[in-house]
Structures are given as structure tokens and as C-alpha cells.
Write a structure and sequence with these properties.
Blueprint lengths: L1 E6 L4 H16 L7 E6 L14 H8 L4 H17 L15 H12 L3 H13 L8 H10 L4 H8 L5 H13 L4 E2 L1 E4 L3 E4 L4 H13 L7 E3 L14 E2 L1
Parallel strand pairs: 1-2, 5-6
Antiparallel strand pairs: 1-4, 3-7, 4-5
Helix pairs in contact: 1-9, 2-3, 4-5, 5-6, 6-7
GO molecular function: oxidoreductase activity
Protein name: Disulfide bond formation protein DsbA
Pfam families: DSBA
């Protein structure tokens, strides 16, 4: 069974959703038959490499709210992250453009290290406050994930794997993805947002049991999406 996961490295619910999905996978008796493939998605493709505004100012502007409201929102997200063992630090997070991080992830896929680099990038951004738009930082993180640092530098210095990033983004648009994380199980069932492990487990078991079917069925999706991402996903 293939599970495709659209996510972005600056989406706080993507890391939370990843953890909840992994908790479900740990409970799934056929987990060794599940292939997880990460897909690129850019919440803010026009984001600068080196942002001037901090995370709170960025959120306040994006959702047209006060700084106090933005800080309150991040405290709520941090509390959700804490529930799955993630210690978010919004004070240290550095808003940046994620295109190069996504290109590097596709390179990692060719080396069998997509899972490792994805985890390393998310941890670096949300827990360590690292600048994941910086080529120097990305090359170092690639090495820590088990990749050749010189090759990572070469990839980052080129436009290599940009077409794969674009392909993922276009595919997301075609199937109606407007926010991440977004999970597609077996090309049939879709789960939007950082749902509970029980929801993910239910879909894993359903897809395993079913041999036929067509269409994309949304499971556990909150159709009343709040502008403050309260449904557990980060919207465009």
C-alpha cells in the first residue's frame, strides 16, 4: 500500500500529522507493507529566503489578526505538538522559502533517504530554529540524514529536481488539495489535516481490506475550515 503525504516544512500541523500517522502505523499489523512517499507543497511559494518579519508578525498579517491573537494561536498549536512529543519554539522559527528544501528531498528520494531527510528538516525548523532556506544549513542537514554533503551542495547549486516539485504541486491542485498535511491512501482515500491516530488506522485497515473501488473519498475532514487553521491543517 502506498501512502502519499503532501506537506511543507514550515507547516506546524504537518509535523504533528506526521507523528499521529506514525502512531497509527505502529498499531497497523501490516505496517511493513506500507510505502510512505512525501510530496512537495508550498504554503507560500513567494516567501523570501531571508524574511524580515518574525513568525508572529507573519501570522498576524496572513490571517489579519492582532499580534496577541497570533501568539495565542501559536500557543494552541504548540500545545497540540506537545501532545505528540514535539516541543515547538515559535520564537526561534525562521520563515523562509522552502523550494530548495523540497528539491533536496527529491534528491534524497533517489538515495533512499527521503524519510530521514524529511524528519531532519522538520525537526530542524520546528524544534531547533534552524534556517532551512540556507544552502549551508540544508547541506549540513542532508549530511546528518545520511546523504553525501558534496552532492547535496551540487544539487542545491543547480535547478535539479525542480520539475519533480512542480509535478507534486500540480498533482495536488488536480485532486483539490488546498491545505496540508494531506494524506492519500492507496490512491483512493484522502485524509486532510492532523487527524487522530484512530482515523489514520481506520483508513489503513479499510484500504488493506478493499481490493476494488474508485474515486477519492475524504475521511475525517472538517468542512468548516477556520482561517486560524483550527481544523489541523495549514491552508494556502
Amino acid at each position: 500500500m502506498k501512502v502519499h503525504i503532501w506537506s511543507d516544512y514550515v507547516c506546524p500541523f504537518c509535523y504533528i500529522g506526521k507523528r499521529k500517522f506514525e502512531q497509527a502505523l505502529d498499531r497497523f499489523k501490516h505496517s511493513d507493507q506500507v510505502e510512505v512517499i512525501y510530496k512537495s507543497f508550498e504554503l507560500d511559494p513567494n516567501a523570501p529566503m531571508d524574511a524580515v518579519k518574525d513568525m508572529y508578525e507573519t501570522l498576524a498579517e496572513k490571517y489579519q489578526m492582532s499580534l496577541d491573537k497570533a501568539k495565542e494561536m501559536t500557543r494552541g498549536v504548540a500545545a497540540q505538538a506537545k501532545e505528540v512529543g514535539l516541543d515547538y519554539d515559535f520564537d526561534k522559527m525562521k520563515r523562509t522559502n522552502t523550494r530548495d528544501a523540497h528539491r533536496l528531498t527529491h534528491y534524497a528520494s533517489t538515495q533512499g533517504k527521503m524519510q530521514e531527510l524529511t524528519e531532519r528538516l522538520l525537526k530542524a525548523y520546528f524544534l531547533e530554529g534552524k534556517h532551512i532556506g540556507s544552502h549551508d544549513t540544508l547541506a549540513q542537514l542532508a549530511e546528518e540524514a545520511g546523504l553525501n554533503k558534496d552532492e547535496a551542495v551540487r544539487v542545491l547549486s543547480s535547478r535539479e529536481h525542480n520539475d519533480q516539485v512542480e509535478k507534486d504541486i500540480n498533482e495536488a491542485s488536480k485532486i483539490g488539495v488546498t491545505g496540508v498535511p494531506f494524506f492519500v491512501f492507496g490512491g483512493k482515500y484522502a485524509v486532510s489535516g492532523a487527524q487522530s491516530p484512530d482515523v489514520f488506522l481506520e483508513v489503513l485497515e479499510k484500504v488493506w481490506e478493499e481490493e476494488n473501488g474508485s474515486g477519492l473519498i475524504h475521511v475525517g475532514e472538517n468542512n468548516e475550515k477556520d482561517k486560524d487553521c483550527s481544523d489541523g491543517s495549514c491552508s494556502i
